[in-house]
Amino acid sequence: MIDANRLWWQTGVFYIVYTRSFKDKNGDGVGDLAGVVEKLDYLSQTLGVDAIWVAAIYPSPMADFGYDVSNYTDVLPLFGDLPDFDELIAQAHRRGLKVIVDYVPNHSSDQHPWFIESRSSRTNAKRDWYMWADSRSDGSPPNNWVSVFGGPAWEWDKATGQYYMHTFLKEQPDLNWRCPALKEAMFDVARFWLGRGVDGFRIDCAHHIIKDPLLRHNPPNPAPADTAYKPLGEYDSQLHLYDREHPDVHAVWREFRQLLDSYSATQPRAAFGEIHVFDWPKWAAYYGQRLDELHMPFNLGLIGAKWEVRTFRRLVDGIEAALPPGAWPNYMLNNFDESRSATRYGQAQARVAAMLLLTLRGTPTLCYGEEIGMTNVSIPPERQQDPFGLRVPGLGRDPYRTPMQWNPGPNAGFSAPDTPHLWLPLAVGYREVNVETELADPTSFLNLYRRLIACRKAMPALLWGDYRPVDGAPSVDGVPEDCYVYLRQAGDQRVLIALNFSAHEQYVALPSPGLGRLVLSTHLDRQGGAFLAGISLRGNEGVIVELPAEDL
Ligand code: NOJ
User: Fold this and answer.
1) From ligand 1's centre to the CA of 496, what distance in Å?
2) In a structure prediction context, what are the per-residue pLDDT tens digits for the chain, which is 552 residues long?
3) CA pair distance 101, 82, nearest whole angstrom
4) Among this protein's residues, is 274 annotated catalytic?
5) Cα(396)–Cα(65) distance, rounded to whole angstroms?
6) What are phi and psi of 525, to 5 degrees?
7) Cα separation, 63 vs 279, whole angstroms
């Protein structure tokens, strides 16, 4: 079914493997690369995804669980070593699975040898590799910038008498991408992983790397509560005009794209950026005006969206409208930084959300455990790990990072049954919510995800067809306001997706008589002919209906 003219990152389903939490092969209570290799058949065959982003694998003192990298060209020994990584690439590629790794360009660890050198003296050759600045005349930091994780974004270095900038923790100093030698060293990091055969990079904080050269103060945010995303405490008190998204960032990603292109003749490589920007034209700018920057800036919009049709509809239509010509969209409901969709929306609603994710135009990205309906796990205070949560109570990400639930046995099959301590506690309900149990239940969450993925792969209209929302007529016939209905069409194939966001029965009446074919219901209990003049949807039900070839 896959069209050779379309690239793997357009036709594939992505899956985030949070390495610490996916599968612990060596029984130390923490996931590892050998564990990921063990589960490749599950990923490629049982579930049917096409690309895995193996997250946060580099050596790190773990101040921010791997996003404080102390060596960009090695693997954290807790997870394995470079030969283990090579084995993962080889085994994944043997199964047709692509492998994406992190690229963390905005900051390193303060334990990275580059930073240790940089802070050793003002005249060190690597001084300029990081963001150093003098204090103001009263000794205060160079400007008012605040850290995403709370507190000032500047840390005083007594030995050299200057401040250094950190967008996140003080243990994560920001790199200076205006320094050509730093840029070249970071491009060498990319070359290192491309040489080992990775298919792509997920670029952490890609919009943060270039700041205002004049270090101007950020203005106050007049509406701090009005966040398009989750509330971030003190960080929301400013408009981030000067500490991120400087226009010069685009030149860097254009050059990075050229680097990837130079490796793509026989193996197409791609860059996906973490862009926490919710103004769609600004977000879309990261594709590049000529599609010459990131292949896809990851879109995080669905994660913050309230469960109501008009919000989702406005979001998808806004994203579609903002795309430069030829750009390929993408969506995700979950990642390891965010509350899980089954908790945000509820179990029944999360099934409908899954149908949305896997039927929209654009690459879907799932996060480990989403496919079995994992929910947030409440973490007792003494087991909390995430420094963000320890600094800003309530914002910790541990509840979304708990071990994957593979079976109903001890340690949920994440680790050996006799492993005494897992790095985070398991979900209380894992004996019911796990891969093994759900595989045996024909209507489970997991079987819904499997069916949706299989359906997407089998239908060109879902894979690369156009997207067209269907509006309700203002009469009794039409689309009720609690339903999100859209068409996907490729060639002669036309597929209607109707999603009931409410808990009540709804009746979708289309202007076309005739009979369609109900391909899938989120309840997984009906298939067959569907009269298009009136499709009735049960509460929290979504359906995929293949239409006859004539116009709707
Ligand atoms: C995004 C990562 O996913 C998150 O875990 C991390 O804390 C920040 N970027 C900073 O690197």
Assistant:
1) 37
2) 556 678 999 999 999 999 999 999 999 999 999 999 999 999 999 999 999 999 999 999 999 999 999 999 999 999 999 999 999 999 999 999 999 999 999 999 999 999 999 999 999 999 999 999 999 999 999 999 999 998 999 999 999 999 999 999 999 999 999 999 999 999 999 999 999 999 999 999 999 999 999 999 999 999 887 777 778 889 999 999 999 999 999 999 999 999 999 999 999 999 999 999 999 999 999 999 999 999 999 999 999 999 999 999 999 999 999 999 999 999 999 999 999 999 999 999 999 999 999 999 999 999 999 999 999 999 999 999 998 888 888 889 999 999 999 999 999 999 999 999 999 999 999 999 999 999 999 999 999 999 999 999 999 999 999 999 998 654 445 889 999 999 999 999 999 999 999 999 999 988 777 899 999 999 999 999 988 888 999 999 999 999 987 655
3) 13
4) yes
5) 12
6) -130, 10
7) 30
Nearest alpha carbon to residue 500 among 377, 291, 345, 378: 345
Q: Which residues touch 25 (CB under 8 Å, ≥6 apart)? A: 32, 34, 35, 37, 38
CB 190 within 8 A of CB 259: yes
- Token code pair at residue 197: 């055969």
Q: What is the pTM of this model?
A: 0.97
Contact 327, 284 (CB under 8 A): yes
Closest C-alpha to ligand 1, atom 1:
204
Regarding the beta carbon of 67 and ligand 1, being less than 6 Å apart is answered yes
Answer yes or no: 550 catalytic.
Answer: no
Sheet with 162-165: strands ordered across: 132-133, 162-165, 154-157
Helix (H) or strand (E) holding 274: strand 270-274
Other Cβ atoms within 10 Å of 90 Cβ, number: 12
- Please tell me whether residue 424 adopts helix, strand or coil conformation: coil
Nearest CA to ligand 1 atom 6: 67
